[in-house]
Amino acid sequence: MNILDKIVEKKIEQIAEEKRQVSIEEMIKRAEGKIIRDFTSAIRDAEGLAIISEIKKASPSQGIIKEDFDPVATAKIYEEQGFDAFSVLTEKHFFLGDDSYIEMVKAVSSKPILRKDFIVDEYQIYQTKAIGGDAILLIASVLKEKLPEYYRKSVELGLHPLVEIHSEKEVAYIEKADPMIIGINNRDLETFTTDVRHTEKILKYLPKDRLVISESGIKGAEDLKYLKSLGVSGALIGESLMRNLKDIKKVF
């Protein structure tokens, strides 16, 4: 069982418990009236390569990334840097995230927020909107044949789905969903190593008119220059930024 399978298994257990605590009917009510910031336009209209800066405390591969983790302070730094959108980890067990971080970050920033979690149940789509998310991560290898349905539901609610793939074979999963924003994850789920050049390998299989985001393993200016040369729309950067919050210029 790879790490993604372990995360999904735990997530299914977690959502079952959350549904017992807050019914889907109640979650639907909580989602009503929430204002959605335009994540898609933030990526499309960015000057040059759009930067989605990630707010996270830990990861399964690296453990604790930021001991003195403060989502609000981090968001303020990212806001000052003028990044185009934020990604906020809400997964509790492996990334030490929390749903409350989204509203905390939204209160001190003007940027659209991607809820970074592992969606396994329709309940979480309503939940994402209810907790203040503007965009939602849908992982093709997790949802498979459910992906088109979850994509449509997300769009119906006004959310902006980012559909993530890891490999060439997963391109088939996204054809029916026909997503506008596609994330290419550069992480090998078996070894958990990253290679930013993985983006180039997968990019050729995707429609040319899509907004493509390169995710994971982006360490600095050279990687960004390389990605820009490929013609991708943006980059999602987490660990490199979190480790250099006091001097982000080290990354760029």
From TrEMBL:
Pfam families, alphabetized: IGPS (PF00218)
Enzyme class: lyase
Keyword GTP-binding in record: no
Catalytic reaction list: 1-(2-carboxyphenylamino)-1-deoxy-D-ribulose 5-phosphate + H(+) = (1S,2R)-1-C-(indol-3-yl)glycerol 3-phosphate + CO2 + H2O
InterPro entries registered for this protein in UniProt: Aldolase_TIM, Indole-3-glycerol_P_synth, Indole-3-glycerol_P_synth_dom, Indole-3-GlycerolPSynthase_CS, RibuloseP-bd_barrel
Domain called Indole-3-glycerol phosphate synthase: residue spans: 4-245
EC numbers, comma separated: 4.1.1.48
Domain of life: Bacteria
Pathway per the UniProt entry: Amino-acid biosynthesis; L-tryptophan biosynthesis; L-tryptophan from chorismate: step 4/5
Gene3D superfamilies (UniProt xref): Aldolase class I
UniProt keyword list: Amino-acid biosynthesis, Aromatic amino acid biosynthesis, Decarboxylase, Lyase, Tryptophan biosynthesis
Any GO BP: L-tryptophan biosynthetic process
Keyword Amino-acid biosynthesis tagged: yes
GO molecular function annotation: indole-3-glycerol-phosphate synthase activity; phosphoribosylanthranilate isomerase activity
Family listed: Belongs to the TrpC family.
Name this protein carries in UniProt: indole-3-glycerol-phosphate synthase
Gene: trpC
